Amino acid sequence: MVKKGIIADIFSKAKFADESQSYKISYRNFERIVETTLPEFLIQSDNLQTIPISRIKKIKKNNTVLFEKKSTRSE
Question: Quick one: pLDDT at residue 72?
Answer without folding.
Answer: 60
